[in-house]
Write a structure and sequence with these properties.
3 domains; 28 strands; 592 residues; Rossmann fold; binds xanthosine-5'-monophosphate; seven-stranded mixed beta sheet; alpha/beta; GMP Synthetase, Chain A, domain 3; disordered N terminus; nine-stranded mixed beta sheet
Length: 592
């Protein structure tokens, strides 16, 4: 299914390599206008008919060799143009203005003063908070343009040419920190470009089902399903389009899933239609692939490789793909358009897409991806329209490698060491500082968790102690903390069961208390810190986030924590319960 098969976009966002490209497109769609991304150098002739073009922000400098460019023909197409950040600089560069490299750049919040009478600021003129992230800036305004906004450090923060309907802003209207950004985009789309509302993801099911029937023809569809939102919604659409005789889903049980997961997924699929779902048991193979591995990256790699192996074996066996089968996938829009920021989260998906057997199917036109034009939130909306259970649609994100990256392993043995403010735990976890990954020990403080003061102190401690990247507070222990030690541990069925059990307790209590709706994700992690009879410590990591790129540690109600801690300390093999107070950055959400 190519994008030509989708609705014709009124708005095209030209991608100059910035991490904001998808955000801009999503915001435009949220305003009810369908929009798609194209490479920045798309020829103007391929854009005729669109009402508006947005040039996104990117990290390059217009004068650099190989920096993303646009076809200057886009400025005379008659479409309204909005250049954001680097996009504004490209407008100035191409239309006779001037761009100058900044020495120190400007990142973060700033105050914009608007001037003149720009339709971009209709109803929102005046002093306002905006978000800046740039080094270069426009130094001379191109002829025909007027100055529409400035900040203290950026004298040309917004320009516009009313007649030609060309506009530029140095700041980012698409991020939430730009307080009137949504209205600015709305002004551009509706008042300036004359767009009409044409997009509501809830109306998409029927169009997608027609498309599935067209692409599938008389062929049937086979899916690897995960129990995640995307593959389930894609599967359901195929089922509705083709009927239960022509669609099958296979779930690979890795043994690395949470308590009750296989049964939950089975329940969801069997309630869709009888006989469409099967389970491939691969628990032993995954456990064998992980045996003795303690390094986080090697663990991830082993899991990725095993996924590939199992999938290829199934595809090659032809058991499901005999004759007239094609493969269905839950690929969504951000997976099909590479744009700037690359998340570790994509690792497993990349593995899946690269399986040689799948490549072969792509070449043979035997892949169907019904959600390839949708964003995650839009997939959820379609799922709601299809009547899928909210319990499935509102699930917290769960990493592809499953519980394996939440059972921490170590080869060495060592006691806790007294350190400034607490104890140094010789178990390393992954963090992110600047753009680099860190892998460092954790500081354990004995104060009871649960106060903002302690959270603030944790941040100060991480800044002050260069050897650590994470701070946890003690929620409870089955003995004095000083007697705990780290002992060699790998992934075993026993430890996986222990994590499943403790994670199950946390999920149950969060669900009953309603706390689950207050967090974006709540990983529970096992670290090999304990006593001979009770070798592990449970880490609680409730966080809030928008997209997983940054996150805040969340404080839970005291009574809930007390109850949770008591139940967790009663689990066989558990010595202590600790609470992760670290934001991201400097810690990542997962510990590895
Ligand atoms: P980090 O730990 O990088 O996690 O702060 C950010 C988000 O990504 C999820 N995550 C993954 N998801 N495969 C996935 O599908 C992975 O390998 C993976 N690693 C991390 C994590 O749960 C969080 O939501």
């Amino acid at each position: 299914m190519t994008s030509e098969s989708g609705p014709l976009p009124q708005v095209v966002v030209l991608d100059t390599g910035g991490q904001y490209c998808h955000l801009i497109t999503r915001k435009i769609r949220e305003l009810g206008v369908y929009s798609e991304i194209r490479p920045s150098d798309t020829p103007a002739s391929a854009l005729s008919g669109v009402r508006a073009i947005v040039i996104s922000g990117g990290p390059a400098s217009v004068y650099e060799d190989g920096s993303p460019q646009v076809d200057p023909g886009i400025f005379t197409l008659g479409a309204a143009v909005l250049g954001i950040c680097y996009g504004q600089q490209l407008i100035a560069f191409h239309l006779g203005g001037e761009v100058r490299p900044g020495d120190h750049g400007e990142y973060g919040l700033a105050w914009l003063e608007t001037m003149g009478d720009s339709p971009l600021f209709r109803g929102i003129a005046g002093r306002q908070q905006i978000w800046m992230s740039h080094r270069d800036a426009v130094a001379a305004i191109p002829s025909g343009f007027e100055l529409h906004g400035a900040t203290e450090t950026c004298p040309i923060a917004s320009i516009g040419d009313r007649e030609r309907r060309l506009y530029g802003v140095q700041f980012h209207p698409e991020v939430v920190h730009t307080e009137r950004g949504r209205q600015l985009l709305s002004n551009f789309l509706f008042d300036i470009a004359g767009c009409e509302q044409d997009w509501n993801p809830r109306d998409q099911a029927e169009r997608i089902e027609d498309e599935i029937r067209r692409v599938a023809g008389d062929r049937n569809v086979f899916f690897f399903v995960s129990g995640g939102v995307d593959s389930t919604v894609a599967f359901t659409l195929c089922l509705r389009a083709l009927g239960p005789e022509r669609v099958r889903g296979l779930y690979v049980d890795t043994g690395l899933m949470r308590e009750g997961e296989t049964a939950f997924v089975r329940g969801v699929f069997e309630s869709l239609a009888a006989g469409v779902f099967a389970v491939e048991h691969a628990e032993d193979r995954f456990l064998a692939a992980l045996a003795g591995e303690v390094d986080p990256e090697k663990k991830r790699h082993a899991i990725g490789e095993m996924f590939v192996e199992v999938q290829e074996r199934i595809l090659e066996s032809g058991h499901y793909l005999e004759g007239n089968w094609i493969l269905g996938q839950g690929t969504i829009y951000p997976d099909t358009i590479e744009s700037g920021g690359t998340a570790k989260a994509d690792l497993i998906k990349t593995h899946h897409n690269r399986v040689a057997g799948i490549q072969k199917l792509i070449e043979q036109n035997r892949i169907i991806e019904p959600l390839h034009l949708l964003y995650k939130d839009e997939v959820r909306e379609v799922g709601r329209e299809l009547g899928l259970p909210e319990e499935l649609l509102a699930r917290h994100p769960f990493p592809g490698p499953g519980l394996a990256i939440r059972v921490l392993c170590t080869a060495g043995s060592a006691p806790l060491e007294k350190a400034e403010g607490g104890w140094l735990v010789p178990v390393r976890s992954v963090g992110v500082q600047g753009d680099s990954r860190t892998y460092r020990p954790v500081l354990l403080v004995e104060d009871p968790p649960g106060t903002p003061e302690l959270q603030a102190r944790a941040t100060r401690l991480i800044n002050a102690l260069p050897g650590i990247n994470r701070v946890v507070a003690l929620a409870g222990a089955n003995g004095p903390v000083g007697t705990l030690r780290v002992t060699p541990a790998a992934i075993t069925a026993e430890r996986l069961d222990r994590l499943r059990q403790t994670d199950g307790i946390v999920r149950k209590l969060c669900h009953e208390s309603g706390f689950e709706a207050k967090v974006w994700q709540f990983p529970v992690i096992l670290i090999p810190l304990g006593t001979p009879g009770r070798p592990d410590t449970v880490v609680l990591r409730p966080i809030d986030s928008v997209d997983g790129m940054t996150a805040q540690s969340v404080i839970m109600p005291e009574s809930l924590l007390a109850r949770m801690t008591a139940e967790l300390l009663a689990v066989e093999g558990v010595s202590a319960v600790v609470y992760d107070l670290t934001h991201k950055p400097p810690g990542t959400i997962e510990w590895e």
